[in-house]
Amino acid sequence: MDTTEKLKSRIAELEIELANEKSKNAAPVRQKIAQMSSEVVDSNPYSRLMALKRMGIVDNYEKIRELTVAVVGVGGVGSVTAEMLTRCGIGKLVLFDYDKVELANMNRLFFQPHQAGLSKVDAAAKTLQAINPDVEIETHNYNITTVDNFQHFMDTISKSSLKKGAVDLVLSCVDNFEARMAINTACNELNQKWFESGVSENAVSGHIQFIVPGESACFGCAPPLVVAANIDEKTLKRDGVCAASLPTTMGIVAGFLVQNTLKYLLNFGDTSFYLGYNAMLDFFPTMTLRPNPNCDDRYCRQRQQEYQAKPKDITVAKEEIDDTPLHEDNEWGISLIDETVPDIEDTSATVSSGVRQAYTLPARPADPEPEIVSTETSGPSLEELMAQMKSI
Amino acid sequence: MRQMRLFSSRDSGLVSELRLVIMVDESTRKTLSSIPLLSTKAGPRDKELWVNRLKEEYQALIKYVQNNKGSDNDWFRLESNKEGTRWFGKCWYMHNLLKYEFDVEFDIPVTYPTTAPEIALPELDGKTAKMYRGGKICLTDHFKPLWARNVPKFGIAHAMALGLGPWLAVEIPDLIEKGVISYKDRGDE
Known about the structure:
The structure holds 2 protein chains of 2 kinds. By secondary structure, chain A is of the alpha/beta class. Chain A is 31% helix and 14% strand. Chain A is globular. Mean pLDDT of chain A is 87; it is low at 341-348 and 366-376. Chain B has one domain: Ubiquitin Conjugating Enzyme (Roll), CATH 3.10.110. Classes of the chains: A alpha/beta, B alpha+beta.
């Protein structure tokens, strides 16, 4: 009898323990919300965003629910970018990456150690969906630069919006030149607006660049731009490492990227065509880059012609000249210095103060088109050459 | 091994053409000048033109391997799938009279030849910091400007001579010294 009682009380203990454990795992799940509300209550995840309307910053914030953004590269910058857009209530995200989460990524934001080994897109989708179930998330786990995947990438960009059309914006958050050029090629062909973003390999500078095919310089119009790091090159030791990274720089660049994405998509403020960041000096150069008429990419040249043929909507800026000083007295002599450099066309190495091209290229002929192609009809066939190579 | 020091001491500066020539040592320069230059600017999405480019690639590679054999410096073999989009083969490095051999592979990116192929040695992935994911070798700051200036004249053979060759010369002795790779690993050779 005694043992039965003991067992009964033990069962009761275990049941309580089990209930406790269960409650730990059963995290409260936020239900989907059909309509963005501006009601200010603790339970409304959109109240502070909708407040942007009341404050006159954004005319129609709810529009974000209809928009689709593709994020290519879900690493240090891309994952944070995706999280910001998710929290902002973007309609749909399309994520591309072929990498896995590694413990070596833990100096960056977003991913957590228990996700190591998972594909970045799957791990990200799960977290993002939990943060905001209203966002539709589509994932693609492949390398966009290979021939097999590139066509699928182009098709996805042009058909994956909520309305089954082209996405509203592509954000490049990749970490290599090849992938950036692949995105550039696709977006020039598809006439797709996109943002390029990047953080330098020494982790102390970064940039974003808005590319409107035909209107602003494409990524292939000139050698990549580099924000001067102001580091004595002799003291920059690169022995034994490929790249350094900081969560700070990546977070800042992701912030710049999403801020300009929101400004463009929701039509408020001015969208920067180029915004650089030099962490050593806290210097932020901005500028506009015009396309190169001799760009190597023929679709870029085609878009330029289309853009030039298009009648420009002449929006004469209503200049409200307000002569009255903002502050009557200026006891401390505080003044603002304009650091922006307008419209840069020069392709010399130094593009703007603090920004230069990564390298210079030899001058190309004005019209690079007619290239004499040696059809090689005489020589050995490709099959013969392949066989010859094999037999060496 | 002057090449080793030159390629490992990396500065991320704007490098003038002149300095690049100096950066590449005499033997590399000689090697480079004996590899035929290519002329067709076409990538794997360019159907017929790509076939022309592929022929040029194979002709340059055959010449380069023959040159290497002729100068007793044979160090790699490569072949491709029939579309010429995926390449694979072997490379080897002699150290203290022992031969260390590795599998090589890379895809031809859609943006080739504007962007160079990213050569990978998958079996060394995770063994050295001078690699990106998947065993893609980490090239010096000199490689990309040099490549960009020579589009479309440089091909796969040039990428091997300027990219993988110097990388092996710097990294393999270092990895052997650190005990990360040992001769026994490839005892079948």
